[in-house]
Amino acid sequence: MSALLAGLVDDAGLFPPTALPPAGAVARHRRDRAAAHPMHTLRFLVPVGRLEEVRAELGPDDRLLLGLIADAAHPGDPGDRLRAALETVAADDRLETALVEVPLAVFGGDPATAVPAALAAGAAAGVPVFLEPAAPSGIGALLTAVAGAPGVGAKLRCGGVRAELFPTPAEVLHFIVSCARAGVPFKATAGLHHAVRHRDPETVFTHHGYLNLLLAAARAAAGPGAPAPVLDALRTESADTLTRELAALSGPAAAAARALFVSYGSCSTATPVSEARTLLGTA
Prior knowledge:
Radius of gyration: 18 Å
Structural class: alpha/beta
CATH superfamily: Aldolase class I
Distance between the termini: 11 Å
Shape: globular
CATH topology: TIM Barrel
Number of helices: 12
CATH architecture: Alpha-Beta Barrel
Helix content: 40-55%
Order of helices and strands: HEHEHEHEHEHEHEEEHHHHEH
């Protein structure tokens, strides 16, 4: 189980609903780096438009491994902004780019034109680039556009601040199985606040769980031609079902699941760890 959970959680503290101010997000990340829990990637997710805010909070001894996210926060060419941010990071000894994430909507949305533009801007860093379609249903066109490109993954948005931002289990199924069939890894973001699929009593949004996605990835990696078991994994709200099957995965099956499902961004870095400890008995 430890191999299945290792390096699963990226730090998305700057993002809603937690939306910590840069000072608070950097302070929390320092504590997480010192603790170095194995579930944490110790990657700090930063939109390009907020990079300078984060840099302003750093001391000379800070070291941040960044997931740099292209955004449309400022006017001008998004590719130029991303390239400039990558150059800023490369020139700052306190920072290192681990990966780049690009919502294709920033580059116009149409994969046929947005994917080449996004890859041209992000490839200079020499790190993996994860591309997010405008909606999960756009994964097919995205995968067609990236066919054969090295170091490219997909990004799945699992929720947000409005109900319509939460994809259905069938939409998530299509995304995961498509990536498995294409041999393209994916990251996930937003909405994955807890381990198991559930309805939030305050917002009444139904959230996907990170254990649901792990089991779905394991089943898809084992046999992407049989989608029904993957859909069952995404739909279940039974912690017992999820933990029992995940605990029974062989080492190669767990490795295949994680090769497909790389990590996810969580605005809370404590909740995934505490829920894994409660449900799975991890340290």
